[in-house]
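Q: How would the structure tokens look for this protein?
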Amino acid sequence: MHDIFSRMAEKAPDITPDIPQESDATYDHVLKYTGLFGGVQGITILVSVVRNKIVSELLGPSGLALINIFNNVTKLVNQSTNFGLSFSAVKHVAELFDHGSTEELKDFARTVRTWSVLTALLGVLVGFVLSSSISYWTFGSYDYTRHFLLLSLIVGMLAVQGGEIAILKGMKQLKKVALISVYGAIATLFICVPIYFAIGAKGIVPSLLLCNAAILAIHLHFSNKVMPWSTSLFSRTEYVNGIPMLKLGMGYIIAGIFGQGAEYVIRTLILRFGELADVGLYTSGYTLAVTYANIVFIAFEADYFPRLSASQHKLTRQNRTVNQQVEVSVLLMAPVLIFFVLAMHLILPLLFSTKFEGAIPMAICASFFMFFKALTLPVAYLSLAKGDSRMYMMTELIYDIFIALAIPFAFKWWGLEGSGWALSAGGLLDMLLIHTIYRQRYGYHFDLSKVKLYIVQFVCFAVAVFAALHENPWLKIVTAVMLIVSGSISFHVLKKETTILLKLKKRLWRK
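A: Here is the predicted structure in token form.
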């Protein structure tokens, strides 16, 4: 392994950014890179759709629930031991990259990798030690101890992946980040499907291990092209150099523990109040309402956070950057959500199987969460861009405590549909909390000139949701009309404020 890394180090690094170094991004820039990652995530999700469809047919709700629980536990242990390096390192790498400090950038990349390896070893160790306890806390027995022992290796893989992706994002190698996502999805498809087909649910753990190993190899392949591998595990200097990064990451790690911990509590309590199949239905409903619609936010995160970090020292520029992102998020998210609500009965059999139809009402009710998130997430990044880990941690804690209590409670009394409404209520709480606190703390001012636009989009979406919750087929027409209205508004505004659509039209006209 050392020889492989040594040969990688002999290659000259290509640190040419994939995006222009703009001092103040325009709507064109925001839409362009949201489109880039949106397209890539579209491919990724298409591959995931095929994978989930096959897996759901082969394993059913119970098998899907096991996969989700295993993934949730590994992410929880990873969040508890990685010191937030996958996020905090981006800020430091981006600052060095913007200043053009090549040697300092190489040194800090070595620091990131040193700490990512150390946290990987820590994560594996913690996973080993707690495996029997996790099995008992989750399933009420020690039957899954061996499974969690093996899954601890994934914790280490996730830690190393986090360090590599942080370097790529900080150096604005966004196309490489996008390719990693696509190749990772394709790799998991070709690995897990044959295993599940051959041995069914017994292949869940081996499949997860092999998929994460493949994804790690893809990360290392692309990151080493940009910044050759270098690490110093026994260097005191590297430990000291990583302290500022760890201080910022501590808030993120605690917030991550809250977030993954809340998800763990939710699924465990649903398992206690219901059965394993209910966890599978909740997971599929959450996937429909949140994960697939999340394409818009995944699309802008890789470009937006480094850009916000560069603008946060000037209040006017900071607010313009955030408000631009909020507007684009809402304009893209509203039609997407209405389409999902309209086509939910057609989409679910394509993504999963008819065994998961019980998740549809929950997914429709939970879709409000994503609309609120479009208004919240760009603002929420301010605390991370400013290195204010305590504030980020506090807001995350309040939200996570709320959903960890509200969703299981709602499930117990009102079933899956109630859990969907509880998730949406959590999104509303998070939006009100962050906008109120960040206005006072960071001087963020919401662009009031856009309020009418957001209200109109919300009304279109709300009418579509309540029409979809009723089985009257004529109400489908109402939802379709709302989709046309919402989509037309988004198209008109984006056409007015950007030139991308005009350029695309000219290019198509030439052809």
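Confidence is low (pLDDT under 50) at residues 1-39, 499-511.

The two ends are 50 Å apart (CA to CA).

Upvote if useful.
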